[in-house]
Amino acid sequence: MDHARETSDPAILRLVDVSVVYPPSRCALRDVSLNVAPGEFVFVVGTTGAGKSTLLKLLYRAEVPTSGTVEVSGVDVGALPHHAVPALRRRMGVVFQDFALLPDRTVFENVAFALRVIGAGRRAIRRRVPAALEQVALVHRCDAFPHQLSGGEQQRVAIARALVNNPPLLIADEPTGNLDPDTSLGIAMILDEINHRGTTVVVATHDRHMVDNFPRRVIEFDRGCLVRDDRQGAYAVEPVEPGLSH
Amino acid sequence: MSLSSLGFLIEEALKSIRRNGLMSLTAFTTVTMALSVFGGAAYALYRVHQIAQALPRQFQISVFLRMEVPRDQALRVADSIRALPDVAAVTLVTREEAWAEMEREHAGAGAHIADALAGENPYPDRLDVEVRAPERAAAVTAALRGSGQFPEIDEVRDARDALERALAAGRVVRNAGGIVALALLGATLVVIQNTIRLTVIARWREIRIMQLVGATGSFIRLPLLLEGLFYGMVGGLLAGTLVAVIARELGRYAATLSSPLTAMAPPPLSALTVLVGLTALGALIGLTASAISIRRFLVRA
Q1: Of A167, B68, B107, B178, which has the most beta carbons under 10 Å away?
Q2: H or E element at residue A16
Q3: What is the dihedral of CA A82, A86, A89, A94, to 10 degrees?
Q4: For the residues B114-126, what does the mean pLDDT come to?
Q5: Contact criterion met (CB < 8 Å) for A119 and B5
Q6: What pTM did the predictor assign?
């Protein structure tokens, strides 16, 4: 990538004094600085409007910072020209709460779609789609349409689509927001397995159950500010004294 | 771009045309109507212009002598006219030759006409006069008509009146047809634009996914451009077929008329030229409309 500024720093994600202000003056993120190392699993938590989704949008360049720098694998994402954005997005997978599947295509075609639109050949599609479906244990449903699947299965298809390009980074925005607690744990286990294979995973979530069952690094936002960064945290910090929250 | 990708893009464009259903049909119909009127008007104008261009080069004045003028006097008149400075050639067509000409032109009906005329030949001797320069034709006609130098002349006819009428018709075709065609071309642009806009709305989810998985801008735009191109080309092809068929039928009809204009008309444009021309114009309009729509409605994300 021409516009990449490769560094020797091992961080796959680096934010330095990042602020995002929506017009006229709503501050979505305020002076956020953080690093994420390759292979880490990070939960991003916080109330609605705390800035979780804005943070993720900065990573896949759906937003640009008002100030500060956002680097993904050493690339200054905010400074990328528009034509270089597709190359950035091919190096990450993104999963959404609403699954974002195409209703008129089968599971196989939905996953293959991510390969077809970047110009992959039929041979690569035949090889990589089953491998991605294998990772989410959905090979047997490859001919089903999304409406024939449960919510959990649909989200697994979305994860398979995000993984099919073998990206080093997986970003998930409320991946369990539409799912029941047991199904959410199933999704969390899949994300955990993906992380164990070496993919960096960043998950923005409200799902206390999931975060508490998978003790990983937790970053908490409150009204745009990074208020907590625990290496192996829970969804919320337990008060140490009566009447004192974190 | 690989063949597989191209196949995928064409497949996506066709899927979108099917999905848009009624709107696609409207787009095809509007393009066809607009290009038929435009193509028809342009073709008619071209044909009139073509005939007008050819006419002066073949400009010929027909001089009819009085019935009582004897043949030797007719030959002397021919010599006198030939001596005029602007005249290139004079041919005497005798009344017998004119009769034979009539019989050839009205094959089969000649005998009936002869019966009706009781064997009487109504044709006078005629002198066909060719002028050296087209612009001198009017002066030669005036000299033959009004100078009193040739009392043997009964009537002088040229194709000027027919030419004037054709040019007047051409102006009407150009003005009326041009305005209607331009309005329809504008409507075509709007309809195709709207159809592509509907496609963008119908495909917003796919487009969003394409953007998120790293499809390039051109890969996202190409199916939309292909869709517009398809509407334009198919509409243009249908319009070209319509114009070519109508032109051929009108040409056949005109050939049955014994007008000096049709007799002297150069061969018309081939059906293939009309087809290719209107298809190319349709393609251009389709691409332009798509490009405008993409620019206006495709959100960058």
Answers
A1: A167
A2: strand A13-22
A3: 100
A4: 80
A5: yes
A6: 0.67
